[in-house]
Structure formats: C-alpha cells, structure tokens
C-alpha cells in the first residue's frame, strides 16, 4: 500500500500501479475551485516523486469531466478583492503551474471525457498523453464569451490541434462534440457509449502496461523537449493578460451575465 495525499474534492483509487483520480464536485460539473486546484497540485507533486505509480487516469464524477474554473468563486474573489490585490491573477498563475505539472508527469496521463470539458477541463484534455472522449461529450473554450481569455490552456490547445483551428474555437466560443474532438486530434480514442468507453480504456491501459514505465517516462521527456516546453515566463505573461481582462468592465460584465444566466451586454 502507498500513502496517498488526503483530499476532499477528489476520489482516489490505486490499483496495481494505476492511479484513478476522479474530480468530485458533481453539483458544479466538477468545476475547479481553489480547493480542488490545491489538491490537484498535491497530487502532481506526489506523482512526480512516486515510482509506485506508472499510469494516471483522470476523470470526472456524475457524468461530466470538468466545466473549467469555478466562475462564481472567481467573480466573488474579484468583486471582494482589496485594492492592489488581484486574487484572480494569482489563481490564474496557480492554474498555469498546475497544467505544467500535469503535462510533465513521468507517468502516462490519461484523461477520460464524458459530458462537458470546458475551459480548464478542455485544457486538461489537450495536455494529456492519451485522451478518450464519448461521442456525445461537449468540449470548448468559452472564456471569450465571459470577456476573458483562455490564458493558461492556449499553449496546450495550439500544440494539440494547431493555430488555425485553435483560434477558430477560441474566437467564436464554439462548442464541439466528441466526434469533432476526435477528428481534430484532441482525443485519440472515441466511443459511442459508456460501456464502450470503459472497454476501450481498459484495452489501451493494458497496451501501455506492456511498455516499460521508465522507458515511457524518458520518451515523454524527449518528445516534450522536441516540442516547445511551457515555461514560467509564458505562465506569467498569460496571467497578466487574463488579469487585465478579468478586472476591466468587459470581464466583469461577462461574469455577471454568467451568474445571472443572461447574455452579456458588451461595451461598444
């Protein structure tokens, strides 16, 4: 047995070198609040040093993967922030650091997308080594519809599907289904039902387990160096852009409209 970190917003299951991490805020479609972000950081730090786990499966509870960041929490933090403090910027940097950690895990990282994968959830689907998607899942980058930018996930999306389709999705706020996500290369595996998704997942896991865990970790490291790495300077730059948008009138209106369940009234 290994001693896993103590968490409240995640469900953990360790089986024969596999670690299943389930995002567990189903009442919010597993939106990532500060607590979940902190607990995912704990998990990433733990995994970076764990030789007992060679494969990680990240999934969501309640029929959804992840609706992205908790917008209500972020709006309240911005509205209540004291002068000269910017908790949304700090939170955005923390998210960027989290994505960087999960991207660089030595373990093979698998993401399973059912239901919705928006914003940060979409970013996780794009940075995973292997991504599975249900045909009826809905994925997208809705940040611009809130008057902000997909700041920390943009590098992973562009790296995954290319600049032109990434801009098309971000600048229109388009939501795509699992089949289109598969065609774009966001997911390598597509399933028509939950049963088929589970069967395909188990089959691919068994294929991964035929490979040497150290060899897989080294292969990831080599391939990430061939492509560009996400560095701290990029995380800071993205957070600055996000912070500026989040604090100005457009970002505040986008968040108010979301909470009030109405269309935003953009400024001329």
Characterise the protein shown here:
- The chain is 50% helix and 15% strand.
- With 268 residues, it is α/β, with parallel strands linked by helices.
- The strands form two sheets. It has a six-stranded mixed sheet, with helices on both faces. The protein has a three-stranded mixed sheet with strand order 5-7-8.
- Helix 1 runs parallel beside helix 3 (87-103).
- The N and C termini lie far apart (60 Å).
- The model has no long low-confidence stretch (mean pLDDT 92).
Q: Judging from the principal axes of the Cα atoms, what is the shape?
A: globular
Major beta sheet, specifics? 6 strands, mixed
Mean pLDDT: 92
Query: What is the number of helices?
Result: 11
Q: What is the H/E string? A: EEHEHHEEHEEHHEHEHHHH
Quick rundown:
Helix content is 50%, strand content 15%. The chain has 268 residues and is of the alpha/beta class. Helix 3 runs antiparallel to helix 10 (232-247).
Task: Offer a few descriptive terms.
six-stranded mixed sheet; globular; single chain; 268 residues; alpha/beta; 11 helices
Q: Layout of SSEs?
A:
Blueprint: E1 10-15, E2 18-23, H1 34-48, E3 55-60, H2 71-80, H3 87-103, E4 108-113, E5 116-118, H4 120-127, E6 130-134, E7 138-140, H5 154-161, H6 163-172, E8 175-177, H7 178-184, E9 189-191, H8 194-209, H9 213-226, H10 232-247, H11 249-260
Parallel strand pairs: 2-3, 3-4, 4-6, 5-7, 6-9
Antiparallel strand pairs: 1-2, 7-8
Helix pairs in contact: 1-3, 3-4, 3-10, 4-5, 5-6
């Amino acid at each position: 047995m290994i001693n896993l970190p103590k968490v409240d917003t995640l469900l953990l299951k360790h089986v024969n070198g596999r670690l299943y991490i389930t995002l567990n805020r189903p009442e919010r479609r597993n939106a990532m609040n500060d607590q979940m972000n902190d607990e995912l950081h704990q998990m990433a730090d733990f995994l970076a040093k764990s030789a007992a786990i060679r494969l990680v499966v990240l999934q969501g509870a309640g029929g959804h993967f992840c609706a992205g960041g908790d917008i209500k929490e972020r709006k309240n933090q911005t509205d209540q922030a004291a002068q000269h403090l910017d908790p949304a910027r700090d939170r955005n940097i923390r998210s960027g650091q989290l994505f960087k950690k999960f991207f660089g895990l030595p373990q093979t990282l698998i993401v399973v997308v059912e239901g919705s994968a928006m914003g940060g959830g979409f970013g996780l689907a794009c940075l995973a080594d292997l991504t599975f998607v249900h045909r009826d899942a809905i994925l997208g980058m809705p940040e611009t519809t809130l008057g902000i930018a997909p700041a920390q996930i943009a590098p992973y999306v562009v790296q995954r599907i290319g600049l032109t389709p990434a801009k098309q999705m971000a600048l229109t706020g388009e939501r795509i289904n699992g089949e289109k996500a598969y065609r774009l290369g966001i997911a390598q595996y597509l399933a028509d039902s939950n049963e088929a998704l589970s069967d395909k997942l188990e089959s691919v896991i068994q294929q991964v387990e035929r490979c040497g865990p150290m060899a897989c970790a080294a292969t990831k490291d080599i391939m990430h160096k061939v492509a560009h790495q996400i560095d701290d300077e990029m995380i800071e730059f993205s957070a600055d852009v996000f912070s500026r948008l989040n604090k100005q009138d457009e970002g505040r209106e986008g968040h108010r409209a979301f909470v009030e369940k109405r269309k935003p009234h953009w400024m001329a």
